[in-house]
Amino acid sequence: MKKIFVIISLLLVVFVSCKNKQQAKISKDEYYTCSMHPQIMEDRPGNCPICHMELIVVKKTNTAADEIMLNDEQERLGNIQVDTIRSGTIGDKVVLTATLNTDETKVSSISARIAGRIDRLYFKNTGDYVTKGTHLYDLYSEELNNAKQEYIATLERKQSLDNSIIDFDRLIESAKTKLLLWGMSESQVSDLAKSGKTSTLTSFYSTASGYIMELPVTEGQFVMEGSTIIKLAGLSSLLAEAQVYASQLYAIDKGGDATIQIPDLPGREFTGKIEFANPEIAPDTRVNLIRVSIPNNNGLLKPGMPAYVIIKNKMINALTLPIDAVLRDGKMNVVWVKSSKNAYTIKMVTTGLESGDRIEIKSGLKTGDVVVTGGAYLINSEYIFKKGANPIAGHDMNKM
Questions:
Q1: How far apart are CA 26 and CA 288, in angstroms?
Q2: What is the pLDDT of residue 14?
Q3: I need a labelling partner for 333 at 20 to 30 A (CA). Which of 242, 248, 319, 361 fits?
Q4: CB-based contacts of 109, cutoff 8 Å, min separation 6
Q5: What whole-number distance in Å separates Cα of residue 347 and Cα of residue 331?
Q6: 111: part of which helix (H) or strand (E)?
């Protein structure tokens, strides 16, 4: 009986030792992770410390940090498509999305020349059209009324006391100049001199034509000298403002012509001139701004309309890819390159000109590289799922 107990004990020791060796061997080839949180990697079974789900066994792979392996079924389901990058021509035209905006050089602001209370406004709605010389508002100003009375009194004194001692002509001219500086017209001053009567209200007229953009005052409101009464915009021409990537600027002829298409006016095209390219590049988005002036003689174009700006440029020889092959996050551009069977590596690239569905690759790839042109976003998602990190986040733009 004692011998049997010893034999059983020895067998148990051997069994446990073999099992431990087997587990040690397994731990070298496998690890445990959570299907919901793939960043969790443990060397023994258990539960996820985040969601407490049971960990699953995953085979370890010998892939590099920026590489991922897919099986044949994953490639088929993900519709992974690749193409060999090669030299080709790109160019002919650049199509930019834009918005029509008011030309600031055609905006007029009519301000109060003197403080007073607005007794009546003759235009009360933004968007109304105002012609030059139109009656805009009536103002009650005690200071202006005193100046008008002073002007009439000076005229009357000249008639009754005209002599060589007092230079009434100079006094009259000084009083008249004050009225003109405070916004009265020559005809208003002339009528005042003829009638010899003053009114408590003074009429003011528009000095420009345009559509009302802003009307910040109301009837009965007291305004200070210099306060904006009305802002008018001339729409005889508009600006198409478009954003363009900094890498595309070299292909744009500043001062050249551009064709503008308006989605709201199908079948019609307008020709404009590139008048401005912002000298400063937005550091976050790496985009620039260009403005194209468009004649609007028939008044069909309205501020706020979306537009396409088409700029022709010369054809160039370059390495090109389909635009969908390049993944962008606003700071850098990357592509997935097939490194071997079922293996894909991420590469950072510098892009250039875009034309149609093609994009120029200025650096980061070479002729003959096999690049993923379809399913790149799925590979990116699979990488994040398996390795728990965004592959783009670990790249440094300065190493390009």
A1: 56
A2: 45
A3: 242
A4: 228, 230, 231, 232
A5: 14
A6: strand 107-111
